[in-house]
Amino acid sequence: MTKHYGARAIAKNLEQIERGWQHNYCMLNSCDLPDLPCEIQLVELGKVFSVPYDVMKQTVKSYGKRLRLLSPYKEKLAQAFAYYYMRVALPINIGKFDMAKIQAQISTKLLS
Predict the structure, then answer these.
(1) Which of 13, 74, 96, 98 is a plausible cystine mate for 69, CB 3.0–4.6 Å?
(2) Structural domain total, the chain
(3) Tens digits of per-residue pLDDT, 74-97?
(4) Domain assignment of residue 110, yes or no
């Protein structure tokens, strides 16, 4: 999100992210565990990177206690990630349909 947004625009964007309308972000809830407090977090799905397994394993060992997503939250994040990368852009948007034209076509087919 850009730095030049006002408070209203930021609130509107956060609301859209929370509702799942901005597909490039996923919102994770806060954690109120006394040992591991954490605010609401945004995952930017458009920025993907990889970490070698050995590095990840060493990092996990060095942290000790850590937050982990549980079901169904990890599935929600996985689904948001998959949805973001599986979207298909159409070369031409589907136009609005004319209800009168559709009703006329249906009537014609029913009479034949």
Answers:
(1) 74
(2) 1
(3) 999 999 999 998 877 777 777 788
(4) no
pLDDT, tens digit, 9 for 90 and up, residues 48-65: 999 999 999 999 899 888
Question: How many Cα atoms are found within 13 Å in the side-chain-facing hemisphere of 66?
Answer: 8
Q: Give the torsion sign (CA, 14, 17, 21, 23).
A: positive
| Helix, strand, coil shares, percent, the chain, to 5 | 45, 10, 45
Q: What is the C-alpha separation between 51 and 57, in angstroms, rounded?
A: 10
Sequence-ordered alpha helix ranges (H) in 1-112 = 7-19, 53-63, 73-86, 99-111
φ/ψ of 87, rounded to 5, equals -60, 140
**Its pTM surpasses 0.90:** no
